[in-house]
Amino acid sequence: MNATDQKLIVTIALAAALADGREDPRETSALRAVADAAGITDLDALAREIAEGTVRPAELARQLSDEPARRLAYQTALVACHADGPASEAEQRFLDELRAALGIEGNAGPTAPPEVGSGTPPSPDLNDLIMRQAMLTGALELLPERLATMAIIPLQLRLVYQIGQRHGQQLDANQIKDLAGTLGIGAAAQVMEGVVRGVLGGLTKGLFGGMIGGAAGVAAGAAVTFASTYALGHVASQYYAQGRSLSAADLRALFARFQEEARTLFPRVQEQIQEQSRTLNLQTVLATIQGR
Question: pTM of the predicted model, to two decimals?
Answer without folding.
Answer: 0.66
